[in-house]
Amino acid sequence: MRLSTINLQKRLNTKSKPLPLLLMLTTAWLAGAVFLLALAPYGFWPLAIVSPAILYSLLVPQMSGRRAFIIGEAYGMGLWCVGGFWLYTAIHDYSDTPTWLALILIALMGLGMGLFHGFLALIFNRMVGKQPFSFAALWVLQEWLKTWLFTGFPWLFIGYAFTEEYWLSSLAPIAGVFAVSFVAILLAASLVELLRRRSSYIVVSVMLLAISTSLWLINPQWTKPKGTPDLSVSLIQGNISQDIKWLTQYQVETLKIYAKLTRTEWGRDVVVWPESSIPMFQDEATGFISEMVEMANTTNTTWITGIPYKDKAAFNASTDANTDNYPPFYNSVMALGAEADGLYKKQRLVPFGEYIPFEGVLDVFPNLAGSQDIKSYSRGSDQQSPLQVRGHTIGTAICYEVAYPDTTRKNAMNTDFLLTVSNDAWFGTSAGPLQHLQMVQMRALENGRWFIRATNTGVTAIINHKGRIVKRAPQFERTVLRGEIQARVGNTPFMIMGNYPILIIIALLLLLSYLGRRSKSTRD
């Protein structure tokens, strides 16, 4: 009788066996892939809960570290191969890469970026307690690492799915997008535990959701209007096809297009042209720039334009002109015309698009074909002064650097509103430009500032301090978006503290989870 009781107890305590590996890998890959539908333009945010919940449920059973790693890797590959497939357009359509090679490159990108989730799963399986707090903490840790490790690729964060869901995104002005991701992942994992009849975790998730919802209902105004009249702005969308944008023979035509679109906008407070709308260095377009500045001054208009900027002042004048040395040049934004001053140089450059990683290695091979023709943009300082426009200061971000929460936060300090210029023509009709726009909305919400966004092919938009799109222009049309923007002052908690609060919280949770696992192992 005693032996039968012991055997029964052993059976009850036996962990359920994991699913066959192939089925688990397929499930993990599909769970990662489906997350795309939670982001713009689809916006089915419940999948941002379901997707990580599936991964959590796959990792909960006992398994080897190797098995956990490849399950996490499969999830990450699905996430990036599908969610980041917009890169295919740039690689295939505009880089003359064969279809088969472009697909291989996308797969390699997914394999590399999938390592973040692979190591998440490995650590979750081998080093910390298997519960929602450690899972949510590890998830946010890998998202944060993507903002700086190997220059960073901060895309496809869970928190972006809730940009316009104020019941959760109300946490963004307090602790940024990572706080939104943390609560969403904690909720996802807790729901799995609820199904496993371990309801204690769901209580904490509900409490955090209640706090977030209360903030939404209370609607605290972290920033306030400056008290000056709203500014009238005109955002010019030239819709120049990427395959001809940088052709020398099309440069003059590009300038004519932007000049013609702007002809009716002189007299507005601010006119904005997108990234590299002048497709030549400033010293090569002095005559055209002078004409635009004269028109801006005559009509009392501020003119802001994206332009490649060659810094001759930094160039060593004693260098022999016959050498291959070249002045540093930047992807920049200039503020010109009435009541305007300033030059912003892009800080976060796109690897292989704007600079070649380890470019100095090519110097070892001076005879390598084409190596001497490869020149990279230089990085702008992270201590630049904001643009000055009509008595206001503007925090600026160029293209993909707006995806970096901390970079935008620093640029937003002591400014009245925010500006980003971009050229998303590289990504055609894919979801990439709309995901990019969603990030701008989150940055506006985090910093409590209006954001104006001028692009070449779209999406050109005006976004308020709550992250809501006030106006937007249709994509792939040659048009002008007119609107009014409000200057605001004050700092959100996120602007003051940055990511430190959420990073401290996840560090404490991981430490406690690690110590708890060790203590349990010792008792066992």
From TrEMBL:
Pathway given in the UniProt record: Protein modification; lipoprotein biosynthesis (N-acyl transfer)
Its localization reads: Cell membrane
Sorted alphabetically, the Gene Ontology BP terms of this entry are: lipoprotein biosynthetic process
Q: Where are the transmembrane segments?
A: 21-38, 44-61, 68-88, 100-124, 144-162, 168-189, 201-218, 494-515
Q: What is its main location?
A: membrane
A GO-annotated cellular component: plasma membrane
Any single GO molecular-function term of the entry would be: N-acyltransferase activity
Q: Does the keyword Lipoprotein apply?
A: yes
Q: How does it sit in the membrane?
A: Multi-pass membrane protein
Q: Where is the CN hydrolase domain?
A: 236-487
Q: Which UniProt keywords apply?
A: Acyltransferase, Cell membrane, Lipoprotein, Membrane, Transferase, Transmembrane, Transmembrane helix
Q: Does the keyword Acyltransferase apply?
A: yes
* Similarity comment: Belongs to the CN hydrolase family. Apolipoprotein N-acyltransferase subfamily.
Q: Could you tell me what this protein does? A: Catalyzes the phospholipid dependent N-acylation of the N-terminal cysteine of apolipoprotein, the last step in lipoprotein maturation.
Record-given protein name? Apolipoprotein N-acyltransferase
Source organism of this protein record: Psychrobacter fozii
Gene encoding it?
Answer: lnt
